[in-house]
Fold this sequence. Notes:
The structure holds 2 protein chains of 2 kinds.
Chain A: H1 5-19, E1 32-37, E2 40-46, E3 55-59, E4 63-69, E5 79-83, E6 89-95, E7 106-110, E8 113-119
Antiparallel strand pairs in A: 1-2, 2-8, 3-4, 4-6, 7-8
Chain B: H1 10-26, E1 41-46, E2 50-56, E3 66-70, E4 73-80, E5 92-96, E6 101-108, E7 113-123, E8 126-133
Antiparallel strand pairs in B: 1-2, 2-8, 3-4, 4-6, 7-8
Amino acid sequence: xxxxxxxxxxxxxxxxxxxxxxxxxxxxxxxxxxxxxxxxxxxxxxxxxxxxxxxxxxxxxxxxxxxxxxxxxxxxxxxxxxxxxxxxxxxxxxxxxxxxxxxxxxxxxxxxxxxxxxxxxxxxxxxxxxxxxx
Amino acid sequence: xxxxxxxxxxxxxxxxxxxxxxxxxxxxxxxxxxxxxxxxxxxxxxxxxxxxxxxxxxxxxxxxxxxxxxxxxxxxxxxxxxxxxxxxxxxxxxxxxxxxxxxxxxxxxxxxxxxxxxxxxxxxxxxxxxxxxxxxxxxxxxxxx
Lengths: 134, 145
């Protein structure tokens, strides 16, 4: 599944503007796992409470930006007594190196875990060079 | 995370920082603390009829989650399997921040929590537990004749 980055990101931005939060820049940094194998990079990010329509992924020339909003279905009149997660926004930016093929990024969001796969460009895949006897 | 040395609204940022520091000190963790590495993070609140607990635990199979309420003590336990590759493959782990392994967090609920009225829902990685308060404990208005 490939997320369409531009529409997803616009949606998130509109929601943020409607609610007009006082400190609209404040966001949590989601923890990630990044694993590289010979074919590319796999990234896992914890985004609890985030559904697909509130996730924005944007890929620029060499940066990957993750923006998301969580939605907790909070009942009316809830009084908090203990808050360890005080913000409902997530934001994290990564710099991508040149050999990654940003056109082929695939993303999946399930149970609050974002899984991204960024393959390496064809020419950057490891290739064994044969040494000929002289 | 500031993108420049001078935030657009200096006073708003200072105010926010002060509120956050205040919150950090007001937290007064219970004697059961934050559990191992604080996973899952918990938000607790209440309405006049219920106690609401949110546990932030993405990537868990809900059938393996254990939620127990025993004499006012709520326990949330389970295990999160890692996605990390085996040690002998050629993969390199560049960043490893996500929690992996067994977890258990406990918190005490107020005295009027009804152990028969507990509901737990897991959606998008958040476990939302609603505990009804006992009806007899709810405030009642007494009419004066």
